[in-house]
Amino acid sequence: MEKNGHPITSELLITYIVPAVTGFLKSIALSTGSTLQDTLRLLALMFTYGYQPEVCEALSRDLHGVPTETWLQVIPQLIARIHVPTNSIRNLLEHILAVLGKEYPQSLLFSLIVATKSESVTRQTIAQDIMNKMKLHDERLVNEAQLVGQELIRVAISWPEMWQAAVEEASRQYYTYHNIPAMYEVFRHHHQIIQKGPTTIRETQFMQTYGRDLREAWDLMQQYGKSMDMNVLNQAWDVYAQLFRRFEKLTTKACTLAMEQVSPVLLDCRDLDLMMPGCFGPGKPVIRITKFEPLFYVYPTKQRPRRIQICGSDGKTYQFLLKGHEDLRQDERVMQLFELVNHLLTLDGETFKRHLDIEGYPVIPLSPNTGLIGWVEDSDTFHALIKEYREMRDTQLGIEHRIMQVMAPNYEHLPALPKVEIFESALHQTHGQDLYKVLWLKSKNSEIWLERRTCYTRSLAVMSIVGYILGLGDRHPSNLMLHRKTGKVVHIDFGDCFEVAMHRDRYPETIPFRLTRMLILAMEISGIEGSFRMTCEHVMRVVRQNKDSLMAVLEAFVYDPLINWRLTPAKNGPMFTEGDLGPRRGPQQREDLIVTREETNMLGLAGGGDKNPRAVEAIERVENKLAGRDFRPDQQLDYSQQVDKLIKQATSSENLSQLYIGWCSFW
């Protein structure tokens, strides 16, 4: 093992690393406040040097002094490393998780269920072993969690949607990468699923409608495997292509479905021991699941998320967004970062008296491509608010885009300078006061309006700075929400972090955060030059003064072996259509990022392994931001200078005019 090119000797271990481990353990044991950053630093040392006997001995000796609830805040990091190849580290992790499973079983269940569905056999086995140990003292609870998790996954992705995604993936493997074995494996896996037979009314209807054609296509595919005749393969693809078009028509409409048809097992669940997802916490009241509502709504967007309702033992009904075809583990880590930022903002006098914080919500992964997101109550997306306002006044939703198209039908292919001229001309011909009017019209009186406007401005500023540090992209109007009562801005969908959106081949984002004309006009009378700039400077000061704490979270975030693959953008992601102003993702969809296997992606773990160059670059970039060296490494800016440059970048017509149309930079 080497550090900065020099081997780690026993003397260095005893002099520096062992005392550091011991110090962190004592600090965590004695702390009365937040211990998240210390715990993450301890885990970093454990994963890097835990294979050394001296370090392992220090950990084993003093680990019992750490309160069990300390580990609750780093469960995602613990679960991510359970298949680390070093026995000593793995034994320590299994011990921590076993203690957690005994004292706080509700906290571990869904995370372990995700791990049991991993590609890694080792990971599956260890997670299943821990769950089997939990069954010894909470068998009913574990069985309920497995049942609910399995059925929610069934509800999240229907068979038509599953097959539509399968044909898309197989098509990409065959036509883009010319990888016939991978294409064949995709089809084989999905045919195995339906060969087990339908278990619900919807699945039975699917097999009655499409079963014969699917069997015909698979028979042709198997014939090709024996004969290697390309004509047979083309015949198989003709059938799959026809099926894909039928699936596509079936999955483009919004609808309300009955739980009885999709998951009768879930509908029959009553008075469970299992707690409401996202409601667990030491000292919090215990809210258990009493039943699932019989109807749920399916949204007509690309991923077709479901809005489900679960009744709790406290008499309240909790709403969740159930998402399929999407890995929510990164969103879960972002919520962890927001908790730390909120803690830091409460410790600073200037930010505390302004009530600055970031609105979070529960994120519960159920599998590597399915999860629950807590519903953000009393909030609407900016897109929905603007659409509603313009429809009431018979104004075309994309009037700015229409003006740009009239002036230059080939706008997307123009050089930068003509784009700027056309972009600014479209802004001059429209007022852009929609959001300003929405805030005014939805307030009962001027006093409430002033309070909402102030809260809107400050919350927008907080997330602008924190989002910039995180490298958050894809901030189109459907990823920003406005709280109806408070006016607070709430961000959703954190799939593009660490400036991934700035490294796209097409339409790379050129702005640090969203600060368009419509957002500025909705602020106070002085616009940017008032509460917004002041709040930005205070938040930038707080995060820079606490950069060590933030780096502890962000390093664990980037080097997590399960999510760092997001740092590698694919070359050929599907693009937005120019006229699409709807609530969809950015031009490169998340499922089109290159995903490396978990076994080969263990970054920062004991035993070495090269670190992803993009991960190293991302961390260095964050360090420069937190040092004020993000514009020039040889020049350190103070808080106000750094904020000023960021605001100028975010409001530059040169930058805004280069973004893809779906980002709605003209709003």
From TrEMBL:
Gene3D superfamilies: FKBP12-rapamycin binding domain (1.20.120.150), Phosphatidylinositol 3-/4-kinase, catalytic domain (1.10.1070.11). Residues 292-616 form the PI3K/PI4K catalytic domain. Keywords: ATP-binding, Kinase, Nucleotide-binding, Repeat, Serine/threonine-protein kinase, Transferase. Residues 1-118 form the FAT domain. One of its GO terms (cellular component) is TORC1 complex. GO terms for molecular function: ATP binding; protein serine/threonine kinase activity; protein-containing complex binding. It catalyses: L-threonyl-[protein] + ATP = O-phospho-L-threonyl-[protein] + ADP + H(+); L-seryl-[protein] + ATP = O-phospho-L-seryl-[protein] + ADP + H(+). Residues 635-667 form the FATC domain. It is an enzyme of class 2 (transferase). GO terms for biological process: negative regulation of macroautophagy; TORC1 signaling. PROSITE patterns: FAT, FATC, PI3_4_KINASE_1, PI3_4_KINASE_2, PI3_4_KINASE_3. Pfam families: FAT (PF02259), FATC (PF02260), FRB_dom (PF08771), HEAT_ATR (PF23593), PI3_PI4_kinase (PF00454). Its EC number is 2.7.11.1. The keyword Kinase applies. Belongs to the PI3/PI4-kinase family. This is non-specific serine/threonine protein kinase. It comes from Dimargaris cristalligena. The lineage of its organism: Eukaryota, Fungi, Fungi incertae sedis, Zoopagomycota, Kickxellomycotina.
